[in-house]
Specification:
By secondary structure, this protein is an alpha+beta fold. It contains 17 helices and 48 strands. Among the domains are: 246 residues, glycosyl hydrolase (family 31) (Immunoglobulin-like, Sandwich), CATH 2.60.40; 194 residues, Golgi alpha-mannosidase II (Immunoglobulin-like, Sandwich).
Length: 960
């Protein structure tokens, strides 16, 4: 593999795009992104089993400390050097850090600082669980034990008596490019997490999980954009004849490429570098595990209130007029819209911090954005990871952002010290190095300067895995060709016309489906002539010989199952041998690039918007990303399959500490249709981040395109905008405690093993359950209605009690209707909906009380100005209900007078599950209120006086 440059010979065949191209410039050959044809080790039957040939370790010199255990591990026999060079001495360090958190570290011993044979995670870059004053073994719920030779260890939870992690009967393998350890699993273990991956099943037994950030689109079972080596283990046992669920979490703080094999009997971990750095979280409920884990990696940011509104985007809004038309059409059809987004169309030749003066002239664009802001609407542009390198042979070309970065020496390098030059949308590009001393200064100043010209409201970070369209530093010596076209056809160019439609389209639109199928077949025939299949078969790259104490960075001896291309780590990505200022290579920090970019952008936006919370949306994430950014599910397709899988994605990212999550509603790739878009617009209305987005040249899919979609969207959006105070309060709790917002039913009802694989319905907080229709042509859906003994489920639309028996039930779900249920025992703060969040915040509040079987309920509402980074004025109101009363107990910080514009009156209280009509309803024990009682649904509606507002202190409403 040529990792420094593709060379002049490869580019000699560069062609000019045909007239159909959007960019008539030289096109890179497809071969520029071909790497070695590698067989992943887990697929190679001839690969050596390290467990069979390696000696393992023996423990010696163990000493107990106040915090735990320190010991040395010595190689127990002849080095096997099977996928790297064995390390002969290791340090074992066990710390009982808090009551519910145990740390187990294994790392090389006797290696001078700065001479480590590989990269260890930088604690200043990626937050390490805090080493507070350790509680020691007596103060912990954990018990660590070991066998000295061959070394193995076991982690047991004292409170439940179960062994949660055991390497007994296996060997530890620790080499400079390969670390393997195995733990057993009992048959009752259920594993969740280990992402960013879309799985066939929510529960993971039998799955292979490869972690390595890749720009690959949403391919099922493949390593996608981020790296989250954390899992939740949920086990069910019988206690006194009843099923009881216990959960714990395991975080492996290692971000090298890795394969994790989840099997019925255990989990095998294999990484191609780093150390063993494990953290155990005892729970024992799923909710407590998540809170503990998220608290340690970094609790999520509280978003600005407006970001909870509806967002519209597409790749293909070609000019200002089109953007303006989209906004006006949403307003014309009275469909809420909060924010318009721009993909790479707005840029000058796809270069960051620029606008195309032909289609988005700066002066006119600023006028358009000022108009949006006058209506309390917003604009968010995309910013890509790669920075264009100007053509030195074209004297008229300049790109100041590159020039400034080059002068400050902020880009990744080749091993010879030259700039690493890959290829992305603009052509040949360089990539910021987040360890460079001047990189934050440069990055911040580019955003500050651009904001003065183009007043954006947030930033969308894409391509940050980090992606490159060629193998190696393909632009080295070639930048005098810039700009160049990517080595593939863009959607809409000849040979790349979009003809795909959702499942069942042939049943509802037979004529159009037949025409699309015919055109697709013709296009395939054309492409096979233009680019005939290769008749040359390349042998699989075989396991390279191990050179003692030398790392083979480009082709590590152990090949992870990287889903990109032919499995080479360099395909469609910055190559492993790209170097950083801190001495690391991309091999070591590849999966952290997007996280570090997000962190740097967050810091930049704090300067752009002094005092305000930055709004970021990023594709590549890692543990702790939720502190800085929202995330969307990436390049999905317009199919019912991807709509179904969006729920699984949302639940997993809540587990990973990124509760602000959504997907490209109606699908990104391919053509959507009326039925799919109708269902999806309703489903996504209950996700935290709500955006419709699709690919250039596909059918338009804005909510107003189809009348039925518009109607369905209005129905769901009315619910969502009513629930904005509830969503915002849930995000506040997530920000303060690390709790989840969108939740699997099994996390809310941890003792019900019927919920093991349920990812087709979900909870919004603890009080709302969504049961969407997820298949083409259905008019009914079957869902499970769990109970904890006191739960009653109420229909959102009628307020009537429904099912509360812990069984499956089938309910009506005609097109345009999404079943939603309120859980008894919960109180939901509401606000009358509007077309924007700004208008909605001025409307009266409402309170929805759903009594449980014992006649009680609780909830809360959090109110602040919706934008301040450091909140000085806020109100938190605890809500409590009994069979005959509702109490509001408000606690404020700062000055409530500064929140007057957000503290509108509470107009209505709805109480569900009131057994009989009351004779009177009173406020503060004296003032009578108007009320209505529906004896059929047992719903009490109370109209409060206009003077009733949320405030500090205690207020009470009674009925009897």
């Amino acid at each position: 593999m040529k990792v420094q440059s593709v060379g002049a010979a490869l580019l000699a065949g560069v062609a000019t795009c045909a007239a159909e191209s959007f960019r008539p410039i030289p096109t890179l050959p497809a071969s520029i992104d071909n790497g070695e044809n590698i067989l992943p080790t887990i697929m190679n039957n001839s690969a050596v089993d390290a467990q069979a040939v390696c000696p393992g370790y023996k423990l010696m010199h163990m000493r107990e400390t106040k915090s735990g255990v320190d010991a040395r591990l010595y190689l127990a026999g002849k080095a096997c050097n099977v996928y790297g060079t064995d390390i002969d001495q290791l340090q074992l360090r066990v710390q009982y850090q808090t009551r519910d958190r145990l740390s187990v570290q294994i790392f090389p011993a006797n290696i001078p600082e700065g001479q480590e044979p590989w990269y260890i995670v930088n604690d200043e870059q990626v937050q390490r669980p805090l080493d507070r004053m350790p509680v020691g073994p007596n103060g912990s719920d954990w018990e660590f034990s070991y066998v000295a030779s061959p070394f193995s260890f076991e982690v047991k939870r004292k409170s439940t008596g179960d062994v949660v992690f055991s390497t007994s009967g296996t060997k530890l393998v620790f080499e400079n490019q390969f670390v393997e350890w195995k733990t057993s699993l009992p048959s009752n273990a259920n594993i969740y997490g280990l992402g960013d991956i879309i799985s066939e099943n929510f529960e993971l037994k039998g799955a292979n999980r490869t972690i390595y950030a890749a720009d690959i689109g949403d391919s099922p079972e493949a390593n996608l954009y981020g790296a989250h080596p954390f899992y939740l283990d949920h086990r069910y046992v019988k206690v006194n004849g009843k099923t009881k669920g216990y959960a714990h979490g395991v975080y492996s703080r290692n971000f090298h490429g890795q394969d994790i094999l989840v099997r019925e009997g255990g989990i095998t971990w294999r990484t191609i570098g780093g150390s063993i750095d494990l953290f155990f979280f005892s729970g024992p409920t799923p909710a407590k595990v998540t809170r503990s884990y998220v608290t340690e990696i970094g609790k999520p940011a509280l978003p600005q209130y407006w970001t909870l509104g509806f967002h519209q985007c597409r790749w293909g809004y070609a000019n200002i007029t089109e953007l303006d038309d989209v906004v006006k059409n949403y307003q014309k059809f009275q469909i809420p819209v909060e924010t318009i987004w721009s993909d790479i169309d707005y840029m000058d030749q796809y270069r960051d911090w620029t606008v195309d003066e032909n289609t988005f002239p700066q002066a006119e664009f600023k006028t358009f954005l000022d108009g949006l802001h006058a209506q309390h609407l917003h604009w968010v542009p995309i910013v890509d990871a790669a920075i264009y390198v100007p053509n030195p042979s074209n004297g008229s070309e300049s790109y100041a952002s590159y020039d400034r970065g080059h002068a400050l020496d902020v880009f990744m390098k080749n091993e010879d010290g030259s700039e690493y030059i890959g290829a992305v949308w603009p052509g040949f590009t360089v990539f910021p190095d987040w360890s460079a001393p001047n990189v934050q200064e440069w990055w911040t100043n580019e955003f500050l300067a651009w904001f003065k010209e183009i007043p954006f409201d947030g930033i969308w970070l894409d391509m940050n895995e980090v992606s490159s369209f060629c193998v190696g530093s393909c632009g080295s010596g070639q930048v005098d060709m810039n700009p160049v076209h990517p080595p593939f056809s863009l959607p809409g160019e000849k040979g790349s016309i979009i003809y795909s439609y959702p499942e069942g389209f042939n049943l509802t639109n037979a004529t159009e489906a037949a025409a699309a199928a015919s055109s697709s077949k013709a296009q395939d025939a054309y492409n096979s002539k233009v680019n005939p299949p290769s008749t040359v078969t390349t042998p699989y790259y075989q396991i390279p010989a191990v050179t003692p104490n030398v790392r083979n960075i480009n082709h590590p001896p152990y090949a992870i199952n990287n889903a990109q291309g032919s499995h080479d780590l360099a395909i469609h990505a910055v190559s492993p041998n790209a170097t950083h200022h801190d001495g690391s290579s991309d091999y070591d920090v590849h999966s952290l690039w997007g996280f570090l970019e997000t962190k740097a952008t967050f810091e930049a936006l704090l300067k752009v918007f002094p005092g305000k919370r930055p709004f970021l949306l990023a594709r590549s994430t890692a543990p702790g990303s939720g502190k800085y950014t929202a995330h969307w599910g990436g390049d999905n397709a317009s199919t019912f399959y991807y709509m179904r899988k969006s729920i699984q994605q949302a639940l997993n990212f809540g587990l990973f500490g990124i509760p602000f999550f959504g997907v490209d509603t109606c699908g990104f790739g391919g053509n959507s249709d009326l039925e799919l878009c109708s269902r999806w617009m309703q489903l996504s209305a209950f996700f935290t981040f709500y955006r419709n987005h699709n690919i250039i040249s596909a059918n338009s899919q804005e909510a107003y395109v189809w009348a039925d979609v518009a109607s369905a969207s209005k129905t769901a959006m009315s619910i969502r905008y009513s629930l904005l105070p509830y969503f915002y309060t849930l995000m506040y709790h997530a920000h303060k405690s690390g709790s989840t917002v969108l939740r699997a039913l099994s996390w809310e009802f941890p003792d019900d093993e019927n919920l093991i694989n349920n990812d087709y319905q979900f909870m919004v907080g603890g009080g709302l359950m969504v049961l969407p229709a997820l298949d083409q042509g259905v008019t009914k859906v079957t869902g499970y209605f769990p109970t904890d003994g006191s739960t009653t489920w109420y229909d959102w639309y009628t307020g009537a009690a429904t099912f509360s028996d812990g069984k499956n039930h089938t309910v009506d779900a005609p097109l345009g209707h999404i079943p939603v249920y309120v859980r008894g025992g919960h109180i939901l703060p509401l606000q009358a909906p509007a077309l924007t969040t700004y208008q909605a915040r001025k409307n009266p509040f409402e309170i929805l009380v759903a009594l449980d079987k014992s006649g009680t309920a609780s909830g809360s509402v959090y109110i602040d100005d919706g934008e301040s980074q450091n909140v000085k004025d806020a109100l938190f109101v605890a809500l409590r209900a009994t069979k005959t009363s509702l109490s509001l107990n408000g606690v404020s910080i700062g000055n409530l007078n500064n929140l007057k514009s957000y503290l509108t009156n509470v107009a209505t209280v709805y109480v569900l599950g009131v057994s009989a009509k009351p004779s009177a309803v009173k406020v503060a024990g004296s003032e009578n209120c108007q009320f209505e009682y529906d004896s059929q649904t047992k719903k009490l509606t109370i109209k409060l006086p206009s003077s009733f507002v949320y405030s500090k202190g205690k207020q009470q409403i009674t009925w009897a």
